[in-house]
Amino acid sequence: MTAPTPMLKLGTRRSPLAMAQAEEARARLCAAHGWREEQVELVPVTASGDRIQDRPLAEIGGKALWTKELDAWLLAGEIDFAVHSLKDVETIRPAGIAIAAILPREDVRDVLVGAASIHALPRGARVGTSAPRRAAQLLHARPDCTVVPFRGNVATRLAKLQAGEADATLLALAGLNRLGQHGVGHPLDAEDWLPAPGQGAIAIECRAGDEAVRALLAAINDTPSHAAVTAERALLAALGGNCHSPIAVLTRAEGPALVMEAALFSPDGAERVAGEIRFAAGDDAAPGRLADDLLARAVPAIAVHFTGR
Ligand SMILES: NCc1[nH]cc(CCC(=O)O)c1CC(=O)O
Questions:
Q1: Predicted complex ipTM
Q2: Are the C-beta atoms of 60 and 28 separated by less than 8 Å?
Q3: How far is the CA of 190 from the centre of ligand 1 (A)?
Q4: What are the boundaries of each domain within the chain?
């Protein structure tokens, strides 16, 4: 390494998962540029989403509660970049903030803890989740089950399950893997249980005009992961969904093409509309075509939760 040693500030939430993701981002950045770990300082910030734990996220202000403190620190120049679970980052970002890199996507699947499969859940089982998507998917497959609101970080949710507040819960396998908690629960096949848009992807954001930092972050961008999650976010934007909208989607590479599968639900799970589209990488309009197709076929109980473009 030759140039003067940079000293960069990386903003992160304080939860164990957020810290693990920030460490991963720092390790990749240091490896790519031949830096020492001390050259990237982790700056933990408490997000409102972490402070308020007793109400569903959708009720208290949505996904912005995960990002607004870090957004402010970034825009004020207190940090140089911020690391987020992409799943928690709203599709419309404040002016002046840009996603500069997506790290290689982890396993995209949800894990069921408390039963071997959705079918194996006992009749009338109480399943803890506060995610509208997971609740709708569960009730679609198992209308006999009851959804119990379950907020908090991964450890909190597992502790609630242990304490008997629910018979089972649903978590992202990516989060468990990144926390080193292997072997917890049973992964659900993504073929019949699609994940959330962007699940398993870590996004690094910086100031849109900060060309120097953007160039440094470009070195750790994973192009296939970036293409897949960008398409998923474009679908979400074209649907006009928000954090109340139960939407499941997954984009996979199939040879040189991308295949996007998506399903929209009514919140009670009674209604579902699904579709897929195969497209060439770089066909940025494809997710919008799938959105139009899904909205054209959605019954009112689904459509009222999406405003379209
Ligand atoms: N909703 C919170 C959240 N945001 C990101 C993850 C896990 C990591 C990921 O999905 O990328 C989780 C926990 C979960 O859904 O179990």
A1: 0.94
A2: no
A3: 16
A4: 8-105+201-221, 110-187, 233-303
pLDDT of residue 127: 98
**Confidence band of 77 (pLDDT split at 50, 70, 90):** very high
172 lines ligand 1 (CB under 6 A): yes
Give the percent of the chain with pLDDT over 90.
86
3.40.190.10, 3.30.360.10, 3.90.870.10, 3.90.226.10: CATH of 110-187:
3.40.190.10
Q: What is the CATH number of domain 8-105+201-221?
A: 3.40.190.10
Is the CB–ligand 1 distance for residue 173 below 6 Å?
Answer: no
pLDDT band at residue 291 using 50, 70 and 90 as cut-offs: very high
User: Hey, what CATH topology would domain 233-303 get?
Assistant: Double Stranded RNA Binding Domain (3.30.160)
Which of 112, 157, 160, 199 is the pocket-test mutation for ligand 1 (most atoms within 8 Å of CB)?
A: 199
